[in-house]
Amino acid sequence: MVWTKAKVNLALSLVTVFLGISAADLKVGFYSNTCPQAETIVKRVVSGASLSDPNLPAILLRLHFHDCFVEGCDGSILVDNGEISEKFAFGHEGVRGFEIIESVKAEVEAACPGVVSCADIVALAARDAISLANGPAYEVPTGRRDGRVSNMSLAKDMPDVSDSIEILKDKFMQKGLHAKELVLLSAAHTIGTTACFFMTKRLYNFLPGGQPDPTINPVFLPELTTRCPQNGDINTRIPMDRFSERLFDKQILHNIKDGFAVLQTDAGLYEDVATRKIVNSYVGLLNPLFGPSFESDFVKAIVKMGKINVKTGSNGEIRRVCSAFN
């Protein structure tokens, strides 16, 4: 078959549609003329809020991920529309940060009414949160519009802590993300905490007879069972990164390699041939000299994630408040 330029362009367009990514209208500095102070306001509010809540960087990063994985990055998780609200889905259990986004939105609306979307605020807030945790600084393409649908039934396929790596790879692939992005975005667990609720099966019922996950390092197991005792408080929170819970770095990849992963899904990254190879590429002895840059690759992954099923142009709306449709 002879591929003409037109056929190649058509094929690329079809791939873009298949992956659920429509980013043609997103660009860095989208609001430079219509609301030039928007990004400054986001950064100021997020920075101020983090002073009273040191876990805020992880909270806002997680909010961005959960927003993008349901209906695309369109702010649907922010909406309060009764019992069916997407935010009440089990897959969003523990997601927070809504009031911070609403605070940012109020200030942005005062400066530039009806211009900046809640979806963009979520993406920008996550960027600033990562920077506050000493992570990489990066530019966020903006121009997203807010979705008009928010329903908890749409979140039934969120990645889950009990998912196998094959299931996770499939869920990521459905969003146009590959094994490399799975590893990189999972590494965002380098900051933040998880509840003992999500550890119960891994510690006390992973194998027949109530045995724990054998991939847990024997040195680490008593530490986990002490912090999350059987029949203890399932709401107790523990760091997802044993060594640097408030520092955005690649330590969690070392943890995964050495059996110190907290979450079952993180540990599973080292049980799969493809994802193990990716983990090793960032933590190998020769990585500082010849290996890929975790920071730059993470930025590429989160920017790509931020383009999943975005609404642009005449699709969607610009909400006046993030918790309600116009």
Automatic annotation (TrEMBL):
Query: Which positions does UniProt annotate for Ca(2+) 1 binding?
Result: D67, V70, G72, D74, S76, E86
Highest taxon listed in the record's lineage = Eukaryota
Where is it mainly found? secreted
Segments forming domain Plant heme peroxidase family profile = 25-326
Locate the active site: H66 (proton acceptor)
Disulphide connectivity of cysteines: C35-C112, C68-C73, C118-C322, C196-C228
Give the EC number(s) listed in the UniProt record: 1.11.1.7
For binding heme b, which residues are annotated in this chain's numbering?
A: H189
Q: Which cofactor does it need?
A: Ca(2+); heme b
Residues binding Ca(2+) 2 are: T190, D241, D249
The cofactor binding remark recorded in the entry reads: Binds 2 calcium ions per subunit. Binds 1 heme b (iron(II)-protoporphyrin IX) group per subunit.
The residues the record assigns to binding substrate are: P159
GO cellular-component term (any) = extracellular region
Principal EC category:
oxidoreductase
One of its GO biological process terms is: response to oxidative stress
SUPFAM superfamilies in UniProt: Heme-dependent peroxidases
- Does the record carry Secreted as a key word? yes
Family annotation (Pfam families): peroxidase
The UniProt catalytic activity note for this protein reads: 2 a phenolic donor + H2O2 = 2 a phenolic radical donor + 2 H2O
Site (Transition state stabilizer): give the residues: R62
Could you give a GO molecular-function term held by this entry? lactoperoxidase activity
- Identify the keywords attached in UniProt to this record, alphabetized: Calcium, Disulfide bond, Glycoprotein, Heme, Hydrogen peroxide, Iron, Metal-binding, Oxidoreductase, Peroxidase, Secreted, Signal
Describe the task this protein carries out.
Answer: Removal of H(2)O(2), oxidation of toxic reductants, biosynthesis and degradation of lignin, suberization, auxin catabolism, response to environmental stresses such as wounding, pathogen attack and oxidative stress. These functions might be dependent on each isozyme/isoform in each plant tissue.
Regarding protein family, the annotation reads: Belongs to the peroxidase family. Ascorbate peroxidase subfamily. Belongs to the peroxidase family. Classical plant (class III) peroxidase subfamily.
Q: What's the protein called, per UniProt?
A: Peroxidase
Q: Which organism is it from?
A: Brassica carinata (Ethiopian mustard)
